[in-house]
Amino acid sequence: MPLALARGFLTGIITGTTLCAFVVGIVIEYVPLMITGVGLPIAYGVLLYLAGAPRRAREARIAPVIALAKIESLRAGGTETGDIPVYFDLTVAPEGSATYRLKITHGINLVDLPDYHAGDVLVVRYPPDRPWKAEVVERLSPEWERRVAEAVIESAPESSLVQEPAEGCAFGALAVLGFVLGAALVLYLFRAELFAPEEPVRAEETQSSTTTSSSGSATVNVDRSLLGEGELRRAIDSLALATDVSQVITAVVEDRRLTVVFAPTGAQVPRFDLREPAVDRVPALVERAKATIHVGDPKTWQVTIIPFGTAVSSRVIVTGPDGSGSLADGG
């Protein structure tokens, strides 16, 4: 009994560890853990088989008990072709011992099934210490055939039913405890990967420098192309933190530089707020100019943004080996 309890506890641990390892491996995308989850029950099964080898060897050396048995009732189940399982309720009459009831399952070919009836006598064979593992003997010696023909067996009361001892509540409780401990072990070992807070995804900040001159202009130099998504808008916002960008008369955008010219104080000239134009359209304008203006392979580009009446106009100039050309926004 203690060995059975230990086996139940260990089986629970293996089951909990296996399931949890496989699921956690999928969640954290860790293939070795998933492989462990699949391989652990296989290894455990092999170990159980090897551990049971001595017991099976001892049982093989012990002669089984052969006894007569009367069929009290039988019921067929399973498929309708080939060998089907038949559930027998028997009264077993071992020689020199009291009769008892026993329930077993035996596979019988469908063709031979009509040969078995309630009240018929069979011969069964079972280990001396485990009668519930009895099996029907189909090939009988002449001596046993004679004994079957002459046998008269009184039915044993149902209260004498012999069956495999129940493993009990302790076995189930230990199996559940082992399952919980196995799962908890995996969760504890990989708690950092499972429960660590995710780092917020932050856009890589653009390094920029702003230079403002006394002559009414400012320049923003960045370390990446202003054609990148949102880069020009970030450069303008950076400049707006350093100076007033609501009085701009010209803005020139190059690959990694933004130059802004401000309106002189008191001068009545057209001006605009640099934060208002749709600068997100500049990358598309540059790409369209590179594709439509035939200057060879364009090497440089420059976008000029100026006020035009009540609107703001953008024009791109691209330069290549074959010269230069321009394209206005909307052109």
What would you say this structure looks like, in words?
By secondary structure, this protein is of the alpha+beta class. It has 3 domains: 2-59 and 167-194, no CATH class; 62-160, OB fold (Dihydrolipoamide Acetyltransferase, E2P) (Beta Barrel), CATH 2.40.50; 208-328, no CATH class. It is built from 8 helices and 12 strands. The protein has helices spanning 2-27, 31-51, 53-61, 142-150, 168-189, 191-195, 231-242, 282-292, and strands at 65-76, 83-93, 100-109, 121-126, 135-136, 208-212, 217-222, 248-254, 257-262, 300-308, 311-320, 323-328. It has a 7-stranded antiparallel β-sheet, covered by helices on one side. A 5-stranded antiparallel β-sheet has the order 3-2-1-4-5, with helices on one face. α1 runs parallel beside α5 (168-189). The protein is rod-shaped, with a radius of gyration of 45 Å. The model is unreliable at 201-206 (pLDDT under 50). Residues 206-219 have a biased composition (Low complexity). Residues 200-220 are annotated as: Disordered. Keywords: Membrane, Transmembrane, Transmembrane helix. It comes from Amycolatopsis japonica. This is Conserved putative membrane protein.
How are the elements arranged and paired?
Blueprint lengths: L1 H26 L3 H21 L1 H9 L3 E12 L6 E11 L6 E10 L11 E6 L8 E2 L5 H9 L17 H22 L1 H5 L12 E5 L4 E6 L8 H12 L5 E7 L2 E6 L19 H11 L7 E9 L2 E10 L2 E6 L3
Antiparallel strand pairs: 1-2, 1-4, 2-3, 4-5, 6-7, 7-9, 8-9, 8-10, 10-11, 11-12
Helix pairs in contact: 1-2, 1-5
